[in-house]
Specification:
Order of helices and strands: HHHHHHHH
Number of helices: 8
Strand content: under 5%
Number of domains: 1
Distance between the termini: 51 Å
Radius of gyration: 20 Å
Largest sheet: none
Structural class: mainly alpha
Length: about 240
């Protein structure tokens, strides 16, 4: 005999669930509309600054030392997260600092463009946009379906990120295995794609008290990391 709960979920709900889901989606987006508009507007601006700096610096310099680039990325990421994520400051100050950091990320990413080339960069940009759009929609759908990602999910993602960083450092300084490195790149791409789902779920659940910059920082880091992973994958092919 067919399980009643499964039947109700997949068949009976088609008659009423679709309308209910649509109403919930409309209600949620309407409630968060101003915050989401500010978040995505700031995100687009910061990504634009990063892209401008990447284009500008890639035309002005030759290939940089790989060790220097890796050190810069590590230092810059830690400074970015600590200063903007943990230190309380007025919104306008955080916005200015975010713009400065975005410009700096463009400088770092310009090395990727020099090494990978214009075609790989453009392909990675389109891929990043596609992945972000799909993961955002999935995160939204999960929340509307009653699936709320909380502290445990965040902890799993954090430890996964920590493992990725340590494995990267281990491979770079000791193993230097290209296969292992590519495996880590794919793992990182999956990880940051899942982060988009988690951040979407969290942003729509959490009350940021108008702090749209913090929300856009979460998305910004996801997008930058997805972009870097895609460049690395496409450049290896």
């Amino acid at each position: 005999m067919v399980n009643t709960n499964l039947y109700n979920t997949f068949f009976t709900s088609q008659q009423t669930g679709g309308a209910s889901l649509s109403r919930n989606l409309t209600s949620l987006l309407f409630e968060k509309r101003e915050f989401l508009v500010k978040t995505f507007a700031n995100l687009i601006v910061q990504l634009g600054i990063t892209y401008y700096a990447m284009e500008k610096f890639s035309e002005e310099k030759d290939k940089k030392n790989k060790n220097l680039t890796i050190i810069l990325v590590i230092i810059y990421l830690f400074a970015f997260v600590i200063i903007l994520g943990l230190i309380p400051m007025p919104t306008w100050v955080k916005l200015i600092l975010f713009s400065v950091f975005s410009y700096g990320f463009g400088y770092i990413l310009s090395n990727l463009k020099i090494v990978a080339g214009e075609e790989v960069i453009n392909t990675a940009i389109l891929g990043t946009m596609s992945i972000f759009g799909i993961m955002f929609a999935l995160g939204l759908f999960m929340l509307l379906s009653g699936i709320k990602l909380g502290f445990r999910t965040g902890l799993i993602l954090f430890y996964s990120l920590l493992f990725l960083i340590l494995a990267r450092l281990f491979n770079y300084f000791t193993a230097k295995s290209s296969a292992f490195s590519k495996g880590l790149t794919i793992f990182g791409l999956i990880l940051f794609s899942v982060y988009v789902i988690y951040d979407t779920n969290t942003i729509l659940q959490k009350n940021y008290y108008g702090d749209f910059i913090t929300a856009s920082i979460d998305y910004y880091l996801d997008i930058i990391n997805i972009f870097v992973k895609l460049v690395s994958i496409n450049n290896d092919n």
